[in-house]
Each structure stands twice: as structure tokens, then as C-alpha cells.
Amino acid sequence: MFKCTRVFILFSKMNFVKPDYNGGSIANIYGSILKNFGINSNRKPLKRDLDKSGKFVLAIFDAFGEKTLEKGLEKGFIDKKMLEKFDHETITSIFPSTTACAMLSFYTGLTPGEHGVMGFTTYIKELGTIVNMLNLSHPSQETPLPLIYQNFSKYISEKAVPIGDRLAEKGISGYSIVPASIYESPTTQFHHRNLRMVKYYYPWDAFQAAKKILTENDSVFLNIYIPTVDTLSHHYGPFSPETLSSASDLLKLLLSSLEGIKDLTLLLTADHGQTDNVVSHVVDDSLMDLLEMPPWGDSRAAFMKVKDETKLRKYFEETLKGFELFTREEYLKEGFLGETVDPKFADRLGDILAVPKVPESLIYSYRGPEGDKDYIAFKGHHGGLTEEEQLVPLLIYRG
User: Average pLDDT, stretch 2-26?
Assistant: First the structure.
């Protein structure tokens, strides 16, 4: 029978949800994968003890948050009987709850404070700039910055050991099914190092590839990453018919690809959820006058180096009332980035962190209103600490 167990921590301040890095977050899946294959690791696994299987699948549906799943069931887009095939728990994302941070946590087991990626954009002192951590460019352009593009691993923690490395040491076959659009990027190549990468173009061929791999291998780790729900959530909203119907179709395709596969454990989860975005606040001159440099992180997790904290707080009280401000000492004490932050990444931390309590975002426009009009117009955003962004399903299927 379909059941849901919640294992998250409500943060007393404004009902924010703190990442549960102590066995209840996506960062703990790495430890559970290694545990399944009998590999010792210093990374804490999920609290949920999983039966060992010869075939272990991690399926990541980008932005398929717990609240999106709930809305899909409530509105009839997702068949409740289909969900009965899974055990269901609720775990948390990491912070900031955004793909650039989450993917490193999935594939290395490190928290953002440990691996060094502090958001979709991150200030990297060695490069003298803020960097888009997905395509490794300056946020104003698509062309990658050569230094980080050619040596991505130099700018993250040396403790970041991709899951494929650990599996390869033990002679365990590993595959990763990856969208063609990101196949060649250094971040993707690092995440899936020592996994046999399979390029796909649409979800249909992704799941056909999964079925083939699982049929042909008696013992194997398989990762599948599907960005469809995230793309539609940004453009239509996370609880829109477009988004919910896509999530339903992906679930059906996934289950179809698993038919007849034995000795299988599948974990289906998301890197984060999304929340509705009613207002996009674009950083103006008044706010920039109070900052040393543009904010970084994400639209709902803004790290800021400030000139005058008192004036900054007054600005938010008068102009951005829906945002909660945390000092560096406060957000480190609360463990948003993990139990510890590597001292080598101290320069990547802001003096003040702004996190919205409301369906609003804060955007620094590098290309102006016209150049960033699509981003500013997004109906869904993520990065923050609300339930919609932090809570993700952990759907467990056994074959």
C-alpha cells in the first residue's frame, strides 16, 4: 500500500525547513548506494535501511518536489494506484536548493559547505568573479570561463569523490543516462566520472536505454537524470497542468522500463522542489549602493557582501518585506550549508543571506530587463527554505 513517512526538520523561524543532512537529505543517498554494494564510506547513508539488490537505480526528476507530487495526486494527474507500487518517504534537498549544489551532493555525498558550490551562481575569489556553476561562465554570457571550464575540479573540494570512482574501485559496473544538452559539460563529466555515460534526447529514449542496461547486467548501478519537470515548472508554475501531466507521464515511462526486472532497488527523488513565483524583484541601484558586489546564490537564496548592515536591513524592511535576513554567524550556526563549511571556501559566503518567506524572488540582471526577460518572467523558482522547495519525495521501488 502507498504510504508516506515524513522525516524533515521544521525550522522555528518562519516555518522554514532546514536540510536534514543527518540521514534525511539527498546528500545521504551517496552513502546508501555505496552501502548497497558493500563499499565502506565515511558518508552517512539515509536513515531508511534498504534491502541489498544487485541492480540499484537512482532516478532524479529535476524539481519533482513533494508538493508537486501531492498536487498531482490531489488534482488527478497522478494515479494513486500507480504510486502504490512504491514505498514513499519525504526527505529534504540541500541549501541552496538548486541543481548546481544538489548534483555535487548526489554524486559525492558532500554538503554545499563541504564541496564549495554555494548556488546556481557562486563567488570564486581565485577567478575574481561570480560564476554560473552550471555552464561555468560569467552570468552575463554563455561562453565558459577557460580556467574553471578546463579544470572544474580545482575549484571544488578535493574531498569530492564521484560515486563512479568508488564503484570502479570495486569493479562494479555503473551507467548514467544523461541529456544530450549537458552531456559534454565539465560539470556533467565530473559528476559521472567512471560511469559509462549514455546520451539521450527525449525521455522516451532515456527509459529505453535504462531497460536495456538493466536487462543486460546482473549487477549494476544506474543513474537517470530527467530535467523536464524543472523546465515546465519554471515556465508554467510547479503546480500547473503542464507540469503535473509531465510528472505523471514520466512516472509511467519509468515504471514501464522496470517491468520484469528482478533483484532491483530504485530510488526516485528530486534535487529540489519549486514554489510559485508571483513577483520577481530585480536588484536596483538603491540596493546595489548598499552592496560591495552583486548578490550570488540563487533567486531565492541571495548571499550578499554588504557595506552597511543597518542600512541594508532598513532597505529590506521598507522594500522587500517578504525576505528573512540571516547573518553569516546565524546561517552557519543553523547548518543550512551542512555541519561544517570548509575554511577554504570562506570567501564564498556572504555577510548576509536573504531568503524569501513569500512567493517572490530577487534577481540581479546582468543583461538588462530585455536580455533576462524570460528569467524574470519565470512562474516558478527555487533555492530557498520553504516546504515547496526543500521537501522532495523518496519513492522506493523493488523488483
Answer: 70
CATH of 278-381 among 3.30.1360, 1.20.1730, 1.10.287, 3.10.50: 3.30.1360
Q: Give me the percent of the chain exceeding a pLDDT of 90.
A: 96
3.40.630.10, 2.70.50.60, 3.40.720.10, 2.40.380.10: CATH of 4-119+150-275+386-398: 3.40.720.10
- Contact of 147 with 140, CB cutoff 8 Å: no
pLDDT of 41 over the 80 cut: yes
- Residues whose CB falls within 8 Å of the CB of residue 391, separated by 6 or more in sequence, listed in order: 8, 17, 65, 66, 67, 90, 91, 92, 93, 273
User: Rounded to two decimals, what is the model's pTM?
Assistant: 0.95
pLDDT given at position 2 = 37
Model confidence at 1, pLDDT cuts 50, 70, 90, reads: very low
Torsion of CA 250, 73, 376, 17, to 10 degrees: -110
User: Is residue 4 pLDDT above 50, yes or no?
Assistant: no
Phi, psi of 130 (to 5 degrees): -90, 140
State pLDDT tens for residues 70-94: 999 999 999 999 999 999 999 999 9
Q: List residues bridging with 327 in a β-sheet.
A: 352
- The 10s digit of each residue's pLDDT in 81-128 is 999 999 999 999 999 999 999 999 999 999 999 999 999 999 999 999
Start-end of CATH 3.40.720.10 domains in the chain = 4-119+150-275+386-398
Residues spanned by CATH 3.30.1360 within the chain? 278-381
